[in-house]
Amino acid sequence: MKTTNQDGETVTVKAMTVKEGMVDSAVSSLNIVFKKLGEAAETVATPQVKARYDYSDASNSGTAETDMYLLEIVCDTKDANIYYTTDGSTPTVESQAYTGKVQVPAMTNGAATTIKAIAVKEGLNDSAIGSQTIQFSTKWWDNMCEGDEYEVGIAMKNYSYWSSTGRYQESMGALGLTGVAYVYVQDGKTYLRMPFQGMNMGQLGICYMTHLWYFEDNSQDAVNAFSGNIGTDAVHEAEYDSLLDGHRVNSNVTIELYNSDEHVFAGIESEVDIMGRQRALLLLDYSNIEKKLSLAAAAL
Fold this sequence. Notes:
Blueprint: E1 10-15, E2 28-33, E3 48-53, E4 68-74, E5 81-85, E6 96-97, E7 102-105, E8 107-108, E9 111-112, E10 114-120, E11 130-133, E12 149-162, E13 167-171, E14 181-186, E15 189-196, E16 199-202, E17 205-215, H1 220-223, H2 226-229, E18 235-237, E19 239-240, E20 251-256, E21 263-272, E22 276-294
Antiparallel strand pairs: 1-2, 3-4, 4-7, 5-6, 5-10, 8-9, 10-11, 12-13, 12-14, 12-22, 14-15, 15-20, 16-17, 17-18, 17-21, 19-20, 21-22
């Protein structure tokens, strides 16, 4: 396509598709900004779509077919105008304009609601489309969006392996937490970061933490295979921010949360002065919110 447009001129291209015997498609549009040869026009930042369960709506009853979510859309390009749809269709400047937080249904036309948004600004190319499909859940950890962070309280149980039963059973003692733990979303993934003391003193001498693993499969049966399961694709070692003589002492430990549960199982390996290396299993319950540190939408 050849044009004779001038530098800085904006052209709106509109298109639709037709086929005999079928209803014509909706009209899609795109704003194109023309620049001098060798100069690239800037593009509006892709809008971030954040839909969370609306805990403030007293009529919500925990039912996907009737409950409402609170929608927030943000764009890093200052003064950009945002337009959105809630039926999965491609948004244009003819779509609903976003002016602030608004309720949307969890389901639309019998299916999970898909929100799509585009941002536009005069003199810039239109943004790419941002989208989110609602995965219905009333649990706060399922309603976190990019940039959210919570301070949480950790309830921890320690399990030791019993050869008589071939299973891990709850026991006493653990290399304990020493401070505040956090759940946060970064690059589309949810993480739990917690401070571990990594050492304690017992009757058998000083005990140091050397490794901590976590499991994609969060079922009790999966973690009961912990003693022979290290090294498989479903098991990952945590990230640590400190190391002392090969031991994880006073280290922040970060693990990814794969499951829609209020807890995660973690396998811990420690080194004891007399007994050498030992393994135990931890159940870490992170469901208790202490404080919202960064949350740009609905209050929980």
